[in-house]
Automatic annotation (TrEMBL):
Lineage of producing organism: Eukaryota, Metazoa, Spiralia, Lophotrochozoa, Platyhelminthes
Annotated PANTHER family: GDP-L-FUCOSE SYNTHASE (PTHR43238)
Classification via SUPFAM superfamilies: NAD(P)-binding Rossmann-fold domains
Name listed for the protein in its UniProt record: NAD-dependent epimerase/dehydratase domain-containing protein
Entry GO MF terms: GDP-L-fucose synthase activity
A Pfam family it matches: Epimerase
Residue intervals of the NAD-dependent epimerase/dehydratase domain: 8-88
Length: 97
């Protein structure tokens, strides 16, 4: 296993699953010395903006991305277009890798 620094970006870091990952890392001491975990929320960057997403990726240089974020539009909007809401952020993130 390599000792190279890993920067793990978790989009949707303030959501249910993102917070679950953060809690598991903390409670079970799962974070490795060569890892930096970044839990990004919508307050940190707007994944619907390709320009803002690219600037964020250039600033933090993630080596790994756990993509949990999706555009939030309320219950009915999400039910009617849940894949579309996810894909907006997915395309902006994948364009930065």
């Amino acid at each position: 296993m390599t000792d190279a620094k890993k920067i793990i970006l978790v989009t949707g870091g303030s959501g249910l699953v993102g917070q679950g990952i953060r809690l598991a890392l903390e409670e079970h001491s799962l974070k490795q010395p060569n890892e930096e975990w970044i839990f990004a929320s919508s307050k940190d960057l707007d994944l619907c903006s390709a320009k803002e997403t690219k600037a964020f990726f250039e600033r933090v240089h993630p080596t790994h991305v756990i993509h949990l974020a999706a555009k939030v539009g309320g219950l009915f909007a999400n039910m009617n277009d849940n894949l579309g809401f996810f894909m907006i952020a997915y395309h902006n993130c994948s364009g930065c890798i």
